[in-house]
Amino acid sequence: MTLRTRLLRILVIIILTPVIFLLSCQSKLIYHPRGYDANHLGLLKAAKGERITYQTTQGVQTAFYIPPQDASAAATAPLWLCFSGNGSLALEWLYSTRGWSGNFAYLLIDYPSYGDCAGNPTPSSIRQSSVAAFDALALRLNTTAAAMRARSCVIGHSLGAAAALMAAEDLDLKRGVLISPFTSMTDMGRGMLGWPLCHLNLHRFNNRKHLARISQREGARFTLFHGSTDEVIPVSMGRELAAAHPDVVTYHEIPAAHHNDILGLIEAKIEAEMAALSQACE
Asked: What's the whole-model pTM score?
């Protein structure tokens, strides 16, 4: 073997090693699924919630329905579809919802492999699960998906903002709250890995695209919160999404808020925006 051939092999190995690593371990870098424990189930019981079980191509999935405090208003209460960040679980929204208006109902949706859900998370499997959860709740409430859409909005934090936008697009919804959203997963990869490795992204969440499509719907309205000191998703991404749709998106930048503490810092602000958006759905 010539020296030139050896050097070429070494060069190929140097180039391919990070490529193979990123392609094989990408899901583990993006998603951080966990299961439930007794504390989570205690929250569900205290909220008088129930499991909504349904099937997708990923297997059996479980979401959670939290009715309004006045059970007789279940057919008309504003319904919020809630989507968590990549290291959180659907039932952890209950730390926030217990302090919010009792007039709201909630559908808390986990991703495949999270909580009590089977399968693997990808943009397509998350989209499928969100739509199936919505349809399963309509069946449980003895109503139609079309009837529920008229009173439904979405809320999501971080990765959950992407899931919320995809659900809104697929379910023909046009109201929501986005907290610490990224522009696209490829952009996130560019910031972490640089070019061209960012284009090895197989999980192509694209909030620019989904928000642009939803913003074309008559009456579309979103509120976007982003922490000024977010150390995970740059605040510039939230600013960009809001600036692209100034007639649709109301932007709030939260001073000194980080990625993981923003929900606790602005619970009251979030509730106020949810109330305003819910009224706009009526």
From this structure: 0.88
